[in-house]
Write a structure and sequence with these properties.
With about 140 residues, this protein is mostly helical. The protein contains 7 helices and no strands. It is globular, with a radius of gyration of 18 Å.
Amino acid sequence: MKNKFLIALKKTWNQFRQSLPIIFGVLLLISLIQALIPSERYASLFSGNFLDPLIGSAVGSIASGNPVTSYIIGGELLKNDVSMIAVTAFVVSWVTVGVIQFPAESLMLGKRFALTRNILALISSVVITIFTATILKILNVY
């Protein structure tokens, strides 16, 4: 039992150590973006209307990446008065839709499969976002 714990601890440490440069890079990128783009610009792009889930999903689809980094970016967007529904759409599509990975995915799994999966993931991200935001409003969480 102790041996399994030590193996798990070592694997966890290695994963954490490997993700630190990525997290550090994302934080530097966010700092650079915040310096170049005023926070009022984010609020004007995501104005809290019915287009927020679509815009958030589109941006997240194009900028897809690691789930951990999406939480950091999402938190920064919330601090800059971006609506919860837009941030939720961004995070969900960031993880599920892979526009950047499409060429590799289509080579490995076929164009039709890759296209179908990405379209369904994009539609699902919008639907999941609307359900999540509705539930959060009902529960008065945000």
